[in-house]
Amino acid sequence: MVLIWASVLCVMTAAVSGAGETEERGTVPAAIEKVPDPFQPFIEIVSPQEEKKKAAAAEKEREEKKSSLPVPPLQRYAIEEFILVGIARSGEESVAIVEDSQGKSYPLFKGTRIGMNDGVVKSIQTDGVIVVEKQTDENGETHDRNVVLSFAREENEEGL
Question: What does each C-alpha distance from 28 to 14, 15, 22 come to in angstroms?
Fold first, then answer.
């Protein structure tokens, strides 16, 4: 215990004596340089034009970041290109299985993103899946469009 106390005391003495030797008169110690200026305002006043520029720059940065992310397989195809293969239900939970044009299967749950137009699975029913996707009209306005994925009807050899 005495040995530890003596070593701490030696370190403190060396730090205090060494601190004064390296600094010149009139310079600010490095520890004090990191302290914020108490006279600077906390809130930055920004004009509406500057605020719009910052918002546009942030939106552009978000778009660039979004475009650089890899696109999941369910969002590479249009919704109409998927074929509903099956639906399973367990109590309140439902899962649907869809296939893409390559024959790969994917599970769909409520809230799953699907399609190239930001489609989201709204509900899974016994006979199909309802997907809500964004659609832009000729005026540039965005509207929600309901797309229903239903089971593909297979015709037998006789055409019945």
Answer: 20, 17, 12
Element (H, E) at 130: strand 128-136
Name the one residue in this structure whose structure tokens are 């730090």.
Answer: 15
> What's the pLDDT score for residue 157?
46
Domain 73-150 in CATH 2.102.10.10: no
Number of continuous H segments (helices) and E segments (strands) in the chain: 3, 7
Could you identify the residue written with the tokens 């200026």?
A: 37
* Range 142-146, long-range pairs (CB < 8 A, 24+ positions): 146/122
pLDDT tens, residue by residue, 140-160: 788 888 999 888 766 554 544
Residue whose token pair is 């044009």:
101
Report the DSSP beta bridge partners of residue 136: 142
- List the single range of 39-53, 109-123, 145-159 with lowest mean pLDDT: 145-159
Calpha distance 61→77 (Å, rounded):
25
Q: Give the sheet arrangement for strand 83-90, strand by strand.
A: 83-90, 93-99, 105-108
